[in-house]
Amino acid sequence: MKYARRVRDYSAAIALAVVLLLALLLGTYVAGYFWMGEYDFGETDEGVVEYVSRDYPQQWLADIYTTAGKVESWLRRIEVTISGPDSGRL
After folding, report:
1. Domain range for 5
2. What is the pLDDT of residues 22-64, one digit of tens each?
3. How many domains does the chain contain in total?
4. Which of 3, 37, 64, 72 could form a disulfide with 56 if both were Cys (CB 3.0 to 4.6 A apart)?
5. Is residue 30 located within the same domain as residue 43?
6. Closest by alpha carbon to 50, among 61, 38, 39, 42?
7. DSSP states of 12-67 as a string?
């Protein structure tokens, strides 16, 4: 009986640690998305944002933040462009 309770306690602690680690990694990813690149936007005469452009100093950053740009575009319902130094080159 004591063994089963101990295993259950360890399982809960491990599950909590995994959830906290994933939350930390996701938070770091989102923070990097917003703060590591240069931000530009265009708006209408009424002040409504039409598009957002994020330019990152390294191409690998632009590559990993492309998914976050798609999510931002979907959430804000505007065009979001993610670019890096090698964007547009073949």
Report:
1. 1-35
2. 999 999 999 999 999 999 999 889 988 999 999 999 999 999 9
3. 2
4. 37
5. no
6. 42
7. HHHHHHHHHHHHHHHHHHHHHHHHSSEEEEEE-TTS-EEEEEEE-SSHHHHHHTHH
